[in-house]
Write a structure and sequence with these properties.
With 420 residues, the chain is α+β, with helices and mostly antiparallel strands. 66% of the residues lie in helices and 9% in strands. The protein has 2 domains: 2-219, no CATH class; 292-420, 2-Layer Sandwich (Heat Shock Protein 90). The protein is built from 12 helices and 5 strands. A 5-stranded mixed sheet has the order 1-2-3-5-4, covered by helices on one side. A hairpin with a 3-residue loop joins β2 and β3. The two termini are 33 Å apart.
């Protein structure tokens, strides 16, 4: 009983009544929402087929004079109600695939079915009210409401049908006997059992599906990690080994020659190979999720300062966050491009790099005191700034580039971050 009570409590916090209608367009659903919608559609279709069965029986009642007389259906109004119910049943079947409109419309039509059933229970001229053989159909409606809308307030209409029927019996000057009172208590107990069982099973089904979804996500993540590790091993053993051999061979050739021009070219070749192997190592660390952003940025700034003699200062603030690999790559590539532009084009004396970790975002700033440029002026064959903007946009970040001729350049990147 405790699990069912908890299920009802959780459902009540989500919504207190039937789902409300939305716009005419089908909204996009996540995996869990799509599963819940598909489950509702399957159950609503079962409701439609049950309605068709009841409507077929209703047509037989209208066609047989004795049955029609028992229920008081000799008037043309009975046919009007019958075709009204048939119309909204078909309309409901056509709309159930719409996530919100279908739920709202199904709930309203189910309430209409319940109203018609209560009228049928109290109308028979012989054995009506609590003596009616149709009273058992109230349990069917309790089951349908609980299956389609397992929420406390949404199940109220069928539960109120019993006291409403009893009250209508009294208003129609029918006395409620002890047996009929026992009947009400019996059906009330059955209603509680039905609601408990259906809500409990529904919660167990939802919990099992959430567990399956979690396991699927874990399996996908494990597959991605395993594939990354495989690629990292292949790249390290293949390309990494080739670059290491290139560095060793360049050092060997460098020791064989005394020509300064040749030594300079070999030195540049060796430096390029060392830069490539450093880049390779950073990429492998990202792939293996062993990438500490602040440490790598600081190391890169220090290496650039040593190789280019550019005065680059670095400062870090805030508590470092574990960013997704894509966000780390975006930030690092934009830092690389910014510092590369400083070294090649800015003629700056001082460059300041700052990295700030906030509670929900990461900010990178690169400022120099160089000659600056016009960021809006088109530069044929230069795609660095365009690539930086595209990277920031794909990571849902904000990139600003402020510069003017003779006024230096400031690049600022803000990446949003959602803590797990």
């Amino acid at each position: 009983m405790a699990e069912a009570a908890q299920a009802l409590s959780r459902s009540a916090s989500t919504t207190a009544a039937a789902p409300s209608a939305a716009s005419g367009e089908k909204p996009a659903l996540d995996a869990q929402g799509q599963w819940e919608h598909d489950r509702f559609v399957a159950r609503a279709r079962a409701l439609f087929y049950a309605r068709m069965m009841f409507l077929t029986l209703g047509l037989l009642i209208l066609a047989v004079p004795t049955w029609a007389n028992y229920f008081g259906f000799q008037t043309p109004m009975a046919f009007v109600w019958y075709f009204f119910m048939l119309g909204y049943s078909v309309a409901n079947f056509m709309l159930i695939d719409w996530p919100r409109v279908g739920r709202w419309f199904t709930y309203v039509t189910l309430c209409l079915d319940l109203v018609v059933t209560v009228i049928l229970i109290v109308r028979p001229r012989v054995g009506g009210g609590l003596q009616s053989p149709l009273l058992a159909s109230q349990l069917v409606f309790t089951t349908l409401f609980a299956i389609l809308y397992p929420r406390p307030l949404a199940i109220l209409p069928p539960l109120l049908a019993l006291p409403i029927t009893t009250r209508l019996d009294l208003l129609l000057n029918r006395s409620v006997t002890a047996i009929e009172l026992l009947t009400v208590l019996w059906y009330s107990g059955l209603n509680v059992i039905v609601v408990y069982v259906v809500v409990y099973l529904n919660e167990r089904e939802s919990a099992a599906h959430r567990e399956v979804m979690k396991l699927q996500a874990d399996l996908k993540e494990m597959a991605v990690v395993e594939e990354r590790n495989r690629l990292a091993r292949d790249i390290h053993d293949g390309l990494g080994a080739s670059l290491s051999s290139l560095i060793i061979q360049s050092e060997y050739v460098l020791g064989l020659t005394r020509d300064e021009a040749v030594r300079k070219e070999i030195g540049e070749l060796k430096a390029s190979a060392e830069d490539s192997i450093e880049e390779l190592r950073r990429s492998l660390r990202m792939m293996r999720e062993d990438f500490e952003l602040a440490t790598v940025v600081e190391e890169y700034v220090r290496t650039l300062r040593e190789r280019t003699q550019l005065q680059v200062a670095f400062e870090r603030s805030g508590v470092e966050l574990r960013l997704p690999p894509s966000a780390q790559l975006t930030l690092f590539r934009i830092l690389q491009e910014s510092l590369s532009n400083c070294a090649r084009h800015s003629a700056a004396d001082q460059v300041k790099v700052s990295l700030h970790f906030g509670p929900d975002r990461v900010e990178l700033s690169v400022r120099d005191d160089g000659k600056g440029f016009d960021p809006e002026a088109p530069r044929a064959g230069h795609y660095g700034l365009l690539n930086m903007r595209e990277r920031a946009r794909k990571s849902r970040g904000q990139l600003s580039i402020e510069s003017a001729p003779g006024a230096g350049t400031a690049v600022r990147l803000v990446l949003p971050f959602r803590a797990p």
